[in-house]
């Protein structure tokens, strides 16, 4: 348990630093904005209590808001992501349920499962964030394009991070 706490604390720090020091300065055009910090919420263990997921999501969002000066938009989007995580996990749950101690990674759960799980959650986060940012429907399709392209870009970035830093499941 202590090992899990240390691992998640380090993941939090590394992803926040990656976001604010490196990714924030990457310009891929006006339609692609990467938010790899959401990986922290995505990789929380399956058995993490819902209230703790919400609290950690909010803290992550507020931390990013402090660096981006976005007045709570990241906090709101991350809290929604933390809330939706429970329902997406139930939706994508295997018939036997999740094994205790497993993390929701590509290595443990497989690529198809991870695409469904992470894709839905990243899309929800980005949809809420970008429409909250623009706060009008006058540019609905332009913002929707931004949501889709940013979601795909963030997912690819997260997948590359997992490919580079997480080992394959030894049981498979």
Oligomeric state as shown:
single chain
Structural class: mainly alpha
Largest sheet: none
Strand content range: under 5%
**Are there runs of 5+ residues with pLDDT below 50, and where?**
none
Q: How many DSSP H or I helices?
A: 7
What is the alpha-carbon Rg in Å? 16 Å
Q: Between the first and last Cα atoms, what is the distance in angstroms? A: 24 Å
> What is the total number of structural domains?
1
Overall pLDDT score: 89
The ordered H/E elements are HHHHHHH
Assign the CATH topology.
Arp2/3 complex 21 kDa subunit ARPC3
> What overall geometry do the principal axes of the alpha carbons give?
globular
Account of the 3D structure:
The structure is a single chain. The chain is mainly α and 172 residues long. The chain has one domain (2-165): Orthogonal Bundle (Arp2/3 complex 21 kDa subunit ARPC3). Helices cover 68% and strands 0% of the residues. The protein is built from seven helices and no strands. It has helices spanning 2-22, 39-42, 50-68, 73-91, 106-109, 111-134, 140-165. Helix 1 runs parallel beside helix 3, helix 3 runs antiparallel to helix 4 and helix 6 (111-134) packs antiparallel against helix 7 (140-165). The longest helix is centred in the last third of the chain and has 26 residues, at 140-165. 28% of the residues are buried.
């Amino acid at each position: 348990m202590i090992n899990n706490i240390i691992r998640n604390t380090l993941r939090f720090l590394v992803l926040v630093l990656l976001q604010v020091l490196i990714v924030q300065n990457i310009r891929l055009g006006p339609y692609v904005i990467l938010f790899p910090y959401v990986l922290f919420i995505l990789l929380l263990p399956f058995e993490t209590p819902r209230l703790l997921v919400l609290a950690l999501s909010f803290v992550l969002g507020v931390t990013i808001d402090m660096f981006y000066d976005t007045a709570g938009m990241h906090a709101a989007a991350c809290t929604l992501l933390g809330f939706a995580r429970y329902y997406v996990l139930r939706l994508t749950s295997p018939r036997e349920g999740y094994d205790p101690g497993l993390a929701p990674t590509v290595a443990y759960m497989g690529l198809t499962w991870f695409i469904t799980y992470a894709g839905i959650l990243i899309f929800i986060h980005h949809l809420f964030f970008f429409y909250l940012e623009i706060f009008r429907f006058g540019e609905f399709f332009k913002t929707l394009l931004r949501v889709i392209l940013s979601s795909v870009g963030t997912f690819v970035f997260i997948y590359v991070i997992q490919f580079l830093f997480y080992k394959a499941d030894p049981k498979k």
